[in-house]
Design a protein that fits this description.
Blueprint (H helix, E strand, L loop, with lengths): L1 H33 L18 E11 L5 E13 L4 E12 L5 E12 L5 E11 L14 E11 L4 E4 L3 E5 L2 E5 L1 E5 L4 E5 L3 E3 L7
Antiparallel strand pairs: 1-2, 2-3, 3-4, 4-5, 5-6, 6-7, 6-8, 7-10, 8-9, 9-12, 10-11
C-alpha cells in the first residue's frame, strides 16, 4: 500500500509545476483584463469655448520691433478664449498707426480681435475714422474718411475694411451708402453692393 501511495505522490509531484504555472497564467490574465485602461500618450485635450481669463478697464498695445506703437485696443471688459485665441471686448476702442504716422481710430459696442490684433470685427454702432493724408511729392492729398455700420471687419495692417451690413462712407464732403462694402485703401478701391447711393460735392473753384 505504501508503495502505491509513493507512486501516486511521485506522479502528483510531476504535474504540480504544470498546475502551478497554469494557476499563475490564469491569475495574470485576470489582472490584465481587470486593470484600469491606461491614458493614451499624447492624446489631445478637446478645448471648450470657455474664457481662460477676464479683463476690466484694460488697454492692450502692440509694438513694432523698433518700439513704435503699432496698434492699441481698449475696452470696459474683455474675455479671452484659448480655443480660437480671440478676445471679445465690450465698449471697444481701437487705434492703428501706419509706418508713415497715419492714424485710424475706431469704436463699437462690442469687438472681436484675433491674437495679434491684425483682424478686428466690430459690432453695434461701429465707426472707423481715418486721418486725412497731406500731399507729398507725387502723392495727392486725401481727405479724411469715415465708415459707419452695425458691423465692420477691419484688417489694420492691410488697410482693408469690409461689411455685409448697410454702411455709410463719408470721404471729405462726399458720401456713399450701400447694403455691403469692401474697401482697400492701398489700392484706393471701393466696392459697394445693393442699394448704392452717392452724393459728390463739387470742388471749390480756384
Amino acid at each position: 500500500m505504501s508503495a502505491m501511495w509513493r507512486r501516486v505522490g511521485d506522479k502528483t509531484s510531476m504535474y504540480l509545476p504544470v498546475l502551478i504555472m497554469g494557476l499563475l497564467a490564469l491569475g495574470t490574465w485576470w489582472l490584465v483584463r481587470n486593470a484600469p485602461k491606461p491614458i493614451a500618450v499624447g492624446a489631445e485635450k478637446v478645448l471648450q469655448h470657455d474664457p481662460d481669463y477676464f479683463l476690466k478697464d484694460f488697454v492692450i498695445k502692440n509694438f513694432e520691433a523698433d518700439g513704435r506703437l503699432k496698434n492699441r485696443l481698449n475696452g470696459t471688459t474683455g474675455e479671452h478664449f484659448p480655443d480660437t485665441d480671440t478676445l471679445e471686448v465690450d465698449d471697444a476702442r481701437m487705434l492703428s498707426i501706419m509706418p508713415d504716422g497715419r492714424k485710424t481710430v475706431g469704436s463699437s459696442n462690442r469687438a472681436l480681435s484675433n491674437g495679434d490684433g491684425s483682424e478686428i470685427q466690430m459690432f453695434g454702432q461701429a465707426v472707423i475714422t481715418r486721418e486725412p493724408v497731406a500731399a507729398h511729392g507725387s502723392q495727392k492729398a486725401l481727405p479724411a474718411m469715415q465708415l459707419e455700420s452695425e458691423f465692420l471687419q477691419i484688417w489694420p495692417n492691410e488697410e482693408r475694411v469690409s461689411s455685409n451690413k448697410p454702411v455709410v462712407m463719408t470721404r471729405g464732403r462726399d458720401q456713399f451708402t450701400g447694403d455691403s462694402m469692401q474697401y482697400q485703401h492701398l489700392d484706393q478701391i471701393l466696392q459697394m453692393q445693393g442699394r448704392v447711393k452717392g452724393v459728390i460735392e463739387p470742388g471749390k473753384a480756384k
